[in-house]
Amino acid sequence: MNDEPVILAFCCHYCAYAAADLAGSMRLQYPGNVRVLRLPCTGKLEVNFVLAAFERGVDGVIVAGCLEGGCHYLEGNLRARRRVERARQLLVEIGLEPERLEMFNLSSAEGTRFAEIATTMVERVKRLGRSPLRPDTKRTEHGIQEIGRQAEAMLAGEKR
Amino acid sequence: MIVADRKKIPEIRDMIKNHRRVLLVGCGTCVTVCLAGGEREAGIIGSALRMALRLQNRGDVVVDECTIERQCEDAFIDLLAPRVSDYDAICSLGCGAGVQALAERFPKMPLYPGLNTQFMGILESQGVWTEKCSGCGNCRLGEFAGICPITRCAKRLFNGPCGGSRDGKCEVHPDLGCGWQLIYDRAVNLGILGRFERIVPPHDWSTGLDGAPRKVVREDQCIAGLCSRT
pLDDT at residue B117 above 80? Predict the structure, then answer.
């Protein structure tokens, strides 16, 4: 398992998260490397969430939001796309491949597409190789749980 | 407000190359508002810097972040003072004034700027800031319908536009409004166009940047006596 890439998916509650759920209900097969983290909207995504993931050794990050024009909060997904672009620029400055981060748009009915996205990203990250920032898988998994707890605390309106 | 933007990560990484423990200090005032060096940006720059260092096999370098309300005032720097001895360098995410205030306060601590301070300006639209004031020390906005010819005219002209003004735009950049067109339009609206019939004499630049660093003193406010700082 140590050589398998670890990918974190920031998923919007209204689309990608439901799509991931649907993929499961449809019994679709997709690589188990993707850890799903639910956001109320991709507009909630901050650049430092993405950096926190990479700093903890995640090999790739997916940001999955609603179709353009279909955001529950009108334009959260459009803002997320700009933030993802900024985060990619930062990855270049840091010395990591920007291809490790990608934003996708899909609807809650697209379980099949979620499975495709997961497969595409896993294949891409496998081509790029393991992140040079990954200490070991256990610590990375622990880091993901930490990010998840921070996100949950934020959703609950608590201070980090 | 003072507007700044951040330096690139490799530049900051190379600046701190001789240090093992670095404190990134954000500022909660102007540079927070212009999204360059507040608490959130300090977190982003800190995280990016740690990763950049690890990729250069310098993962043992400690980079921590903290943000104080205002870097250009000693009272706020006081809150930072107890932490500073744990580090061997500070990278300030304040404006140039903030960096120098920290340098004065911590004479033995190497100080590095994490931002490029740009200008005094305003938020033009979301994510866009524009320069409005050059801090010339002799404000004459009242004479020019509230639009500064020193800052807004690329040639700093005082007596009308140059030949490079076309369709309200400056020849320097197609997106840049001609400062004198703006002055003219506003003067028409205010009904004060007549004042431009007289020649405006040259500006007194002696109050500006051409002399030594400037100082403003309010003696009635100098409770502890006149300040001894240079």
Answer: yes
Whether residues B51 and A52 touch (CB distance < 8 A) is answered with no
Query: For chain A, first and last CA: distance in Å?
Result: 31
Q: Which of A46, A93, A132 sits opposite B48 (nearest CB)?
A: A93
Q: How far A138 CA lies from chain B's nearest CA (Å)?
A: 19
Find the residue in A nearest to B8 (Cα).
A93
ipTM, interface predicted TM-score of the complex: 0.89
Residue range(s) in chain B whose domain bears CATH number 3.40.50.2300: 2-119
The strands making up A101-105's β-sheet, listed across from edge to edge, are A34-39, A7-12, A60-65, A101-105
Chain B: closest CA distance from residue A93 (Å): 6
- Determine phi and psi for A12, rounding to 5 degrees: -70, 135
Contact between chains at A54 and B8 (C-beta distance less than 8 A)? no
Instruction: Convert B45-104 into a string of H (helix), E (strand) and C (coil).
Output: HHHHHHHHHHHCCCCCCEEEEEEECCCCCHHHHCCCHHHHCCCCEEEEECCHHHHHHHHH
Does B44 lie at the interface with A, CB-CB under 8 angstroms?
yes
Question: Distance (Å, rounded) from C-alpha B217 to C-alpha B228?
Answer: 12
Domain assignments of chain A as residue spans, ordered by start: 7-155
CATH architecture designation of domain B2-119: 3-Layer(aba) Sandwich (3.40)
- Asked if B93 and B37 touch (Cβ cutoff 8 Å), the reply is yes
CB-CB neighbors (< 8 A) of B50 in chain A: 55
Give pLDDT tens digits for A77-115: 999 999 999 999 999 999 999 999 999 999 999 999 999
**Contact residues, chain B, for A94 at CB < 8 Å:** 9, 48, 51-52, 55
Q: Which CATH number fits domain A7-155: 1.10.3470, 2.30.300, 1.10.150, 3.40.50?
A: 3.40.50
* Parallel/antiparallel/unpaired status of strands A60-65 and A101-105: parallel
Per the listing, tokens 């980079």 go with B63
